[in-house]
Amino acid sequence: MKLCLSFIAGFVLISISFSAAQQATPAPLPQRPAWLISPEVHPDNTVTFRFRAPNARDLKLVREGTDPVAMQKDDQGVWSVTTAPLTPDYYGYSFTVDGERTLDAFNHGLVPNLISPGNYVHVPGPSLSWEITDVPRGEIHHHFYKSTVADDERDFYVYTPPGYNPAAKTTYPVLYLLHGFSDDASGWTAVGHMNVILDNLIAQGKAKAMIVVIAARLRHARDCP
Length: 225
Fold this sequence. Notes:
The chain is of the alpha+beta class. 16% of the residues lie in helices and 31% in strands. The protein contains 3 helices and 14 strands. Strands 3, 4, 7, 8, 9 and 10 form a 6-stranded antiparallel β-sheet that branches. The chain has a 4-stranded antiparallel β-sheet with strand order 1-2-6-5, with no helix packed on it.
């Protein structure tokens, strides 16, 4: 009788535990609406851009190096356009909504710029030097300082190659990079992917391990002597 009661109690306990586990299982996340996916790179290297603006009258895609392209609005107020197949690369872009420039809110890929920041879309290609591959990686260090010449706060970045040890006595060549007009010190890494390119070249034996200093350029007329 005791054995039978123990079996029944055990079965009830297992059933309760299984039911609790079922209740604790989180519900599946809702499917992401298509209009939230922008840009969407397709297997054939075409790219679909989307922007939700139900009340807009005119919306264009402005892709770097090309003329603005008109986008079409659906009955949900989502504007979209799909490009022809693009050569693997990074492409900067933005939108104009009724003539006003704006960025793609659902794309985390940003192009920093002091005058006209934008977005970028990455169309991957296996043979490109800026594609991330399985090779040793260097590091990017971000530093800040007070400029006594310009009398303001500035920053610069330093790339150290794979295996760099500040305590060692190894000497490296140093490359100094200056960014273009209206860019900031992050441009060479955030947009140019300098560190990825150099990691790949060092791994391939096409470049020596080196230190790269990416400094901020003069930003104001008063910076000039």
